[in-house]
Structure formats: C-alpha cells, structure tokens
Amino acid sequence: MFTPIEIGNKIAEARKAKNLSQALLARQLSLSPQAVGKWERGESLPDILTLDRLAQILDLDLNHFSQHFRQTAAEPPSTAEPAKPQDSLPETAAPAWNMSEGSWVDADFSGLEGLHEQFGSSFIRRSLFVGAHLPDLLLKSNYVEECDFSNAELGGSRFEHTHMTNSLFLNASLTRTVFAGSHLAGCDLSGANLTETGFESSQLQNCTLTGVVWTRTRFHGTHLTGLVLEGMFEGCSFENCAFSDVTFRNATLTRTFFKNKTLKKVRFIDCKADRLTYSFLKSGKADLSGITLIDP
C-alpha cells in the first residue's frame, strides 16, 4: 500500500485531471470538502468502500491506489504476441490493501483474499466475509460483532486480544488457528474445522458448536462457559481451564488430555472415553457416571 501522502497526491492528481474541485468531488461522495482536503494532504485515508466509489468517479482502477499498481505500471510494455484466447493467463495478485484501524459496518467482503497482517485494530459490525480466502490472517485488538465468516478459509490465522460476538463461522476452516487473549461470545461455529486450533488464555462463552471437527484442538488457560461439546475429540487437550455450565454430550474422547484442579462442574452425558482419557478425567475428580469406557 502507498503511504497516505502518496495516496493523497494520487487523489489530487486524478481530481484535477477530471477538472473537479474538492467541493464538487466531496458532493459526489456525500462527504465534506474538508474530508477530501485531509486525504490530499495525507492526514487521513478513505475507507475501502469510499476508495472504491472514488475510483469509479475518477475513472480509475481500484489498484491505482495499491502497491501492486505501482509495480505493474513500472514494467516496460511487453513485445510478446498477445495470448491466444485458449492460453491461460497468470493470476492477478491480490491488492495490497491495508484495512487496519478502520471502521467497517454493513460491508460485504465476501470473496476477499490475502490480507494477512493488514486487518488489525478495526471495528467490524454486520459485515460479510462469506467464502473469503484469508489464510494466515492476523486480527489483533479487533472488535467483531454480528459478522458472517461462513465457509471462509481462515487456516493458520491468529486472533489476538480480539472481541467477537454473535458472529457466524458456519463450516469455516479454522485449522491451525490460534485465539490468544480473545473473547468469543454467542458465536455459531457449527460445522467448523478446528483441527490443531488453539485457545490460549481466552474465553469461549455461549457459543454453538454443533458438528465441529475436534482433532488435536488445544485449550490452555481458557474459560469455557455455557457450552455443549459433542462429537469426536481426538488428541485434544484441556489444560488449566475454567469450566462453567459445560456439558460433554454424545462425545467420544480418545487420547484427550485433561489437566485441571477439578472437573466436578463438568457434566458428561452419554459419552465414551478410552482408558487414557478416562484416567485423566478420574484424576480431575470428574463425575464419570455419564462416561462409558471404550474397550474396558
């Protein structure tokens, strides 16, 4: 992404090329002339939706404001023959948008790709990320409310000190994702893949977890509240966690590690466990009456 001053210069140049005053451009954007002036002086940046509208008004490609545009524009014209219709063309790299420190409300980012570390310290409400391809995303100090990440690819991402409420992660891929110091409340993770996902010093509260894939999922120093956990738990671990109103129902637990001072408040209903897991639960003084030992 260009610096704010570089983007401001580009906006000013394009505005003047279209013979538009700051006031006229602002009127077309339903904004104040002062806002346009701040952009052009590099004192602030338009959000992604305004930037898209700005590109339309100025007859520019949105990539004009990205680092990718500068790199491709500097390349000399190719002397190669045009590709034939049946020839495959190289994929266009994702624009290097920096969406950090933004306020995104009622936005549709479905199909968004490749932000990586460019989405921190943002306020995000009622926005759509359905089917977005955002592996290795870093969400740091974000507030996310009533958003939809259904069918999104978020593998390898890291959520640090992020507050997420009433959001959907239906059938989302969260493999190898880490939630560190984060709070998930009222979220629906039905059908999500949590293989090798880690919850570290976080809170998981009143979330829907139907059909979740639990394979080598880790909970460390995490507070679990108002949850029903079901399905196959294989190679998972619960270490130094706090449980409040947590029920394992119709769950099969194999090679799953429990290291907690007490598991007396955890309920087990119609569950099965292998000998190793059973021993961990017994050491934690869990009520084993709802657990059937596999291959006793």
Structure write-up:
This protein is of the alpha/beta class and 296 residues long. It folds into two domains: 4-73, lambda repressor-like DNA-binding domains (434 Repressor (Amino-terminal Domain)), CATH 1.10.260; 103-293, Pectate Lyase C-like (3 Solenoid), CATH 2.160.20.80. The chain contains six helices and 19 strands. The strands form two sheets. Strands 1, 2, 4, 6, 8, 10, 11, 13, 15, 17, 18 and 19 form a twelve-stranded parallel beta sheet that branches. A seven-stranded parallel beta sheet has the order 3-5-7-9-12-14-16. α2 (22-28) crosses α3.
Q: What are the key terms here?
A:
296 residues, alpha/beta, 434 Repressor (Amino-terminal Domain), Pectate Lyase C-like, 2 domains, 12-stranded parallel β-sheet, 6 helices, 19% helix, 25% strand, elongated
In short:
This protein is an alpha/beta fold.
Furnish the topology, listing elements before pairings:
Blueprint lengths: L3 H14 L4 H7 L4 H8 L7 H10 L9 H7 L29 E3 L17 E3 L12 E3 L2 E3 L12 E3 L2 E3 L12 E3 L2 E3 L12 E3 L2 E3 L8 E2 L2 E3 L2 E12 L2 E3 L2 E13 L2 E3 L7 E3 L1 E3 L1 H9 L7 E3 L3
Parallel strand pairs: 1-2, 2-4, 3-5, 4-6, 5-7, 6-8, 7-9, 8-10, 9-12, 10-13, 11-13, 12-14, 13-15, 14-16, 15-17, 15-18, 18-19
Helix pairs in contact: 2-3
